[in-house]
């Protein structure tokens, strides 16, 4: 079975809860290993051919602080040959000009470091003005909004994980 590493950062717990729901949808900790980036180092990324990266956007368009701390060290990781999927937590009403920017910032960097992106997600069903996470009219990963659309999160995760299982070949 392919090993998947899910790396998340969180400030107020939403992204951690989402990470746990994604893990459960994949079938549990035998399939997906969770890493809180507050305790992670570049070496932790090495053994995974498939990665899932989760980051909420904070402080108007910025990375969550633990991701901020790891950002420069990501340069030490060889992402070539790795398939990487992204998800983010954000607030499309309160921060409509920066909705999910963090997901876009991490995807840009990790792609430059050689990763292949999987798990794009449509922008239908969201209402925002601008986002660094939109590439060619779609989100670079799964956009979740616990502040305004928590009732949609469960179904969005289910659909996205179905898509990812195909992409990861499991
Ligand atoms: C001060 C502050 C700034 C925020 N800035 C943004 C932002 O720029 N873009 C966005 O999409 N969400 C923004 N958010 C919303 C958070 O990303 C959202 O509440 C998220 O669910 C938090 O996830 P966490 O609990 O994993 O930290 C902001 C929230 C606060 C309180």
Task: List strands and helices in order, with pairings.
Layout: E1 4-8, H1 14-26, E2 32-36, E3 50-54, E4 57-58, E5 62-63, H2 65-70, E6 83-89, H3 101-112, E7 116-117, E8 121-122, E9 134-135, E10 138-139, E11 142-144, H4 150-168
Parallel strand pairs: 1-2, 1-3, 3-6, 6-7, 6-11
Antiparallel strand pairs: 4-5, 8-10, 9-10
Helix pairs in contact: 1-4
Bound molecules: flavin mononucleotide (FMN).
Question: What labels would you give this structure?
Answer:
170 residues; alpha/beta; Rossmann fold; six-stranded parallel sheet; three-stranded antiparallel sheet; 4 helices; 11 strands; globular; binds flavin mononucleotide
Describe the protein's architecture and organization.
- Belongs to the flavodoxin family.
- This is Flavodoxin.
- Keywords: Electron transport, Flavoprotein, FMN, Transport.
- It holds the Pfam family Flavodoxin_1.
- The chain is α/β, with parallel strands linked by helices and 170 residues long.
- It has a single domain (4-168), classed as Rossmann fold.
- 29% of the residues lie in helices and 22% in strands.
- It has 4 helices and 11 strands.
- It has helices at 14-26, 65-70, 101-112, 150-168, and strands at residues 4-8, 32-36, 50-54, 57-58, 62-63, 83-89, 116-117, 121-122, 134-135, 138-139, 142-144.
- The strands form 3 sheets. Strands 1, 2, 3, 6, 7 and 11 form a 6-stranded parallel beta sheet that branches.
- A hairpin with a 2-residue loop joins strand 9 (134-135) and strand 10.
- The N and C termini lie close together (7 Å).
- The model has no long low-confidence stretch (mean pLDDT 97).
- Bound molecules: flavin mononucleotide (FMN).
- Flavin mononucleotide (FMN) is lined by residues 10-15, 56-61, 64, 89-91, 95, 98-101, 146-147.
- Flavin mononucleotide binds at residues 10-15, 56-61, 64, 89-91, 95, 98-101, 146-147.
